[in-house]
Amino acid sequence: MLGLVRSAAQDLAPYGATVNAVLPGWVRGTAMADADALQEAERREVSVEQVWAERTASYPAGRLLEPDDLAKVIAFLVSDDAAAVSGEALTVALGSPW
Questions:
Q1: Among 8, 45, 76, 89, which is least packed by CB within 10 angstroms?
Q2: pLDDT in tens, 37-56
Q3: Do 27 and 97 meet the contact criterion of CB atoms below 8 Å apart?
Q4: Using an 8 Å Cβ cutoff, are 36 and 43 in contact?
């Protein structure tokens, strides 16, 4: 996927387009993350709350990402302020190596 992002960034640069990837950590409240937490809880025979508590504790910031955290990063990337950013993979994980 990252190769595709970098290739598309090069191909579209002459047209003024930028292409980037956002690599988020866990975002509670999203359908995919909630389904994954439920699946992990069932597999490990623990509560969903325990899974989320463990995920929260794994972040240096001591909290999970909120959807708004990602929205702000994406808003920056689509703004004129990020016109020179293209072909990049931006990890948004509160300092976690994810």
A1: 45
A2: 999 999 999 999 999 999 99
A3: no
A4: no
